[in-house]
Each structure stands twice: as C-alpha cells, then as structure tokens.
Amino acid sequence: MTAPRFLQIHTLHSYTAALLNRDDTGLAKRLPxxxxxxxxxxxxxxxxxxxxxxxxxxxxDAIDGAxxxxxxxxxxxxxxxxxxxGRYPDEIVAxxxxxxxxxxxxxxxxxxxxxxxxxxxxxxxxxWLAREAERLAAEVDDADMAKEALAEWAKxxxxxxxxxxxxxxxxxxxxxxxxxxxxxxxxxxxxEAPVYVAHAFTVHAEEAEGDYFTAVDDLKREEDDxxxxxxxxxxxxxxxxYGHVVIDLPGLIANCGGQRDLAARVVHNLVHLIxxxxxxxxxxxxxxxxxxxxxxxxAGDRQPRNLATAYREAIPxxxxxxxxxxxxxxxxxxxxxxxxxxxxxxxxAEAPLTGPEESGLTKLxxxxxxxxAEGQVKDAxxx
Length: 383
Description:
The protein is an alpha+beta fold. The protein contains eleven helices and twelve strands. It has helices spanning 43-51, 75-81, 90-105, 123-139, 143-166, 173-179, 249-255, 260-276, 283-286, 319-337, 366-379, and strands at 6-18, 30-33, 36-41, 69-72, 119-122, 195-197, 200-202, 207-215, 230-248, 292-300, 342-347, 362-363. Strands 1, 2, 3, 6, 7, 8, 9, 10, 11 and 12 form a ten-stranded mixed beta sheet that branches. α4 (123-139) packs antiparallel against α5 (143-166), α7 crosses α8 and α8 (260-276) runs antiparallel to α11. The chain is flat and about 75 Å long. The two termini are 19 Å apart. The mean pLDDT is 93.
C-alpha cells in the first residue's frame, strides 16, 4: 500500500426541526442540485463550529503545542495598542496606532475599521506585535520621536515578521494551519489550506416549514388587550446531510512546522469534531445536536473525489437508502478507477458498507476510527 497523501472523510448527519445555517434573509441556506432544491450548510459554518468548539474534549486549541488564532478587524486596536493605554502618554499611543494598523491591514487601514480586511492572526504574531508596540512606546519621549521611530520600524516590518513566521511552528495559529488564510496587504503571510471542506447538502429534497410563534407577557393584566405580546415567524428544516472533507496530510504536516506528531493529534481531534459537533443557529429554541450516522474515511495517494453524485438524483429521506446509495456509487468508482484507497468507517445503519478486500474496509467505533486516522499521518509522505 502506498503512503497516504490524502484523507477523505465522508459523512451523513441527520437533523430535525432546525435552522442550521441562515442566509441574509434569515432563511435556511439552499442549493439546487440534480433539478431538486436541497437544504445546505456552508463550509464556512462547519469550519467555524469545529474551530470554536473550545469546551469539547477534543477541542483543537486544547492540543498540546497548538496556538490560538483570532479573526477580527480590531486585532491591533484591542490586542496590540489597547494594553498600552493608561501606561504611556496618550499622544505616543495615538501616534503608534495608525502605523500598526497600516502595517497589519494595509495602507488604508487607519481610515477606520470598515476599511480593514477581517484578518486571522495567530497568538505568536499578535504577541510579537504587542512587544514591538511596547518597545517603541518605551523608547520615545513624544509624538514626534514616535513618528520617526515608526518610520524606521515600518521599513523593516515585513522582513522582521517574515523571520518570526519562519522561526515559529504555528505563527498564524492552528486555525490558519488547518483552514488557511489570505492577507491582501501582505501576500507573503498567506497560508495554503491543507483541509478542504465541501458545503453539506441534503440527500433528499428540502424539507422546510414556516414556524409561527408567539411570546406572551407574563405580567399582562386582565384589562390589557388580549393576545400575544410578540408574533413572529421563522423557518425550520429537517434533513439528512452528506458532507465531504479532505485533508492533505503533507500540507498539514508542513503547516504544523514539520511536527508530524502535532499534525497527527490534530487529525485525531478533527475526526471527533466532524462527527460530533453540530452547527446551528437558534440553538436555544431547536437544540440541533446530532452525531454522524455514517463516517467513512479513506486514505490514499490519488486526487480526492467527492461522492456527492451518489445523490444527484434526490432519494427519500432515509438513512438506510442513503448508505446503500453511497455504497453502490463507491463500488462503481472502484470498478472504474481502481485507485486502491484504504478504508475504515463507523455507521448507525443496519446495512454494512462493502468494498474491495484490499481496502481493508472495517467498521469501527469513533474512538478507534480517529486513532486509525491519526496513524495515517505518521505514515504520510513529506511535502
């Protein structure tokens, strides 16, 4: 068996009476596919919930050696300049802020936060910027000196922060190492994502209903007008969603500073998060919590391929049919392409998955499946 370059993770998740991911009108996101409208969960929504699951036993930022990351237009204001206020003269702090904003967010960043790109910076980068701001504030006596010092500092900024990034395993934090980032003001800071996440969609036609609900004033008196205090309407959907995630193992190892053990722990935890962490708006009124009905993981060295075409023609909202459709579609791929992926899976369905003997297809618990995926990282080739 060749060294695994890619892990492909295919999932089926079921949710009932939920509003998992809303569009700009407050309705569920949708996707037309195969002539049928489906309910959709965006990749951005999925990634954010995995990244923000900080109290989960398998939280990404709880991994030893991981670095946090923060996404905001206010990183300089809150985390670099903010700590200086009240400790250094106001005119010096005021002189420092616009130059640091421009260094991080680009030439027009000092015009206000709306002119800034929402950036993802790692804790090492933010800590370095904060140290630099502190050093400059301590070295100057007035605003004019600050401007002169900043002019020199700005000339060397990109070279200095580049050196920091090259000397740090996770300069942009673990979130950047996984999902990448784009910095328009500094292309050298861009990070290529080794984890690719498809939009999840229902394997069947959308199932949606408008939910009319009211709120009643508990202190309303009998002589007050009758009826509810508030009347509103929202949308609820139910669905069985197909999801697809690809992990470029050499790319992940490289983004983890070459630390293969760290990358392996990341994959282990990510498998748990994909299976167990639910996206969801309106959690307080829908409790949209579910775990994977099916998770199939493939390890191989060929270009990944999405199995969404198993559901190009919408099928009934039925887990057993969805699993059988996926199994049949995968068998056609095996017969046609013979790419030889190694496979393991978990399933709540009655029918087992089938596959070529050489695939080693075995049904496992989530704990064992995550451990198997972790082991694939240790056998992966270098970038």
